[in-house]
Amino acid sequence: LAVMSATAESPGAILFQDDFSQPANGWMATKTDYAEFSYVEGEYRILLSKPNFNTYSYLPNKTFENFSVEADVRLAAGPSNGVFGILCRGDADEKTLRNGYVFAIRGDGFYAIMKRTSPTFWDAIAYGKESKAIKPGNVVNHIRADCVGGTLTFSVNGEKLLEKADADFKKGGVGLIVTSQPKSEPLDVRFDNLVVRAVTP
């Protein structure tokens, strides 16, 4: 029986992974007037203190085309309507997120695929609410975004929640997103075990 070795082009090949045990891959680690980005006890932490605000950490110098990106994420502290998730096919730097797709959940069971069409505008192109697949409270949810060809697929804890056709952004980077609601208390969100895999269209 011949055994084929995995290449970057074969389905499921790991293109990038990070368990956030050490700050070696270039994720932002800094404190600003609105948030703190840091490595804490084997997780990556985004502490967003500003209400009605969106922030993100972007993986620099890596671009992917057809892939899945998945991560463990938990709301360590903050209101259940805080939004957090992962960015797919993004075009960004540390200061500006110009475009991309965001796959996000809230602790109260809301979930969405959002499209960034300018540095200031988000469009929820697919969404739902009260999914039992999303675990409430300070527990880990495993989220996965598939950006393959013109199809976007969002899964949480192994259950597919959304699928949407959109081919505007063909390739780009990955990132981690946190968004607060108006009058929100601070949001402390932790990310772990991020894996990017090649997927053949």
Model description:
The strands form 2 sheets. Strands 1, 2, 3, 4, 6, 11, 12, 13 and 15 form a 9-stranded antiparallel beta sheet that branches. A 6-stranded antiparallel beta sheet has the order 5-14-7-8-9-10, with no helix packed on it. The two termini are 27 Å apart. The protein is mainly β and 201 residues long. The radius of gyration is 16 Å and the shape is globular. The chain has no helices and 15 strands. The chain has strands at residues 14-18, 30-31, 35-40, 43-48, 54-58, 67-77, 83-92, 97-106, 111-118, 121-128, 141-148, 151-156, 159-165, 173-179, 187-198. 38% of the residues are buried. 0% of the residues lie in helices and 55% in strands. A hairpin with a 2-residue loop joins strand 11 and strand 12.
